[in-house]
Amino acid sequence: MDYIYQANPERYANMQYRRCGDWGLKLPAISLGLWHNFGSEDKLENGRNMLHTAFDLGITHFDLANNYGPVYGSAEENFGTIFEKDFKRHRDELILSTKAGYDMWAGPYGDGGSKKYLTASLDQSLKRMKQDYVDIFYSHRLDPETPLWETMEALALAVKSGKALYVGISSYSPVATREAFNIAKEMGIRLMIHQPNYSMFDRWVEDKPTGHGLLPVLEELGMGAICFAPLSQGLLTNKYLNGVPEDSRAAKNSGFLSRGSVTPERVKAAQELNEVAKNRNQSLSEMALAWILRDRRVTSCLIGASRPEQIIDNVHALDNLHFEQDELDKIDEILSNHDLGESSPKVQAHPWHKSADDDNPKL
Ligand code: NDP
Question: CATH number of the domain that 179 lies in?
Answer without folding.
Answer: 3.20.20.100
